[in-house]
Amino acid sequence: NILTHWVPLIDGNRLTGVVAVFHDISDLKRLAATRRDFVANVSHELRTPVSVIQGYAETLLAGALESDPDRARRFIQVIHNHAERLSALIADLLTLSELESGKVLLEPHPLNLRSAVKQAMSLLSQRATDKGITLDTGNIEASRFVLADKGKLDQVLVNLLDNAIKYTPGNGKVTVTAEDEAEMLKISVTDTGLGIPAKDLPRIFERFYRVDEARSRDKGGTGLGLSIVKHIVQSHGGMISVKSIPGEGSTFSFTLKKGGK
Ligand code: ADP
């Protein structure tokens, strides 16, 4: 994967030598392959709900609408679910491409971590209650501040909490904690859910990577949530990591600069 350029050395109008410049293009090739995979994945992900919608709509038009209203209602529900999937997918794709374009301006401010966590939890509390899951702000003291863009921090917290609830069966618990890590604050979202097998952990932040395709889709997952989270955390200068024990639960941790208050 070496590309060679020959550059002539010219003194006045006399050729005095030639320099060979070697470029290692492995990275470029890898990037091109990643992009190709991504386009293929996106097309596949979009095609599935579209074909389902087409199929069910055609069946309804072919007569099911009049002949069997109960069945028609079920079909319309399926169409609705897949339209929602499409819409979630498009929203996540737009977010990712905005983040990757580098055009999104982050406006970091000192933010109260406990309030941000409580706010994110309140958005998801109904879903948690329905599943009998307790949400807990753990040890986060009211004096904890992080330096972050408000909208982006909300998105990280909501995505991680949403996953924690999604992949935790009934009667579990989701806890958010914070601890000092030098000049950073390490924030962890811990659940008592299904956990993630060790072999999947290294790939969990890749776009469209899912431990269990069917399970994730069933639950309305786009497979993009964690890539978005990782992107946001890294663009704030933080790091993200995950630990998990299958059958016991998972902990997603990320670091942010302290907010200086
Ligand atoms: P999805 O939309 O499928 O949830 P994500 O990018 O948010 O996509 O997560 C990728 C995959 O990681 C999920 O499909 C799921 O298999 C796994 N995962 C994420 N969070 C958790 C968690 N808290 N517990 C168990 N598995 C998880």
From TrEMBL:
Q: Where is the Histidine kinase domain?
A: 41-260
Q: Where is this chain's protein located in or outside the cell?
A: Cell membrane
Q: Which domain of life is it from?
A: Bacteria
Q: What is this protein called?
A: histidine kinase
- This protein's species is Geotalea daltonii (strain DSM 22248 / JCM 15807 / FRC-32)
Q: Which residues of the full protein are shown?
A: 331 to 591 of 591
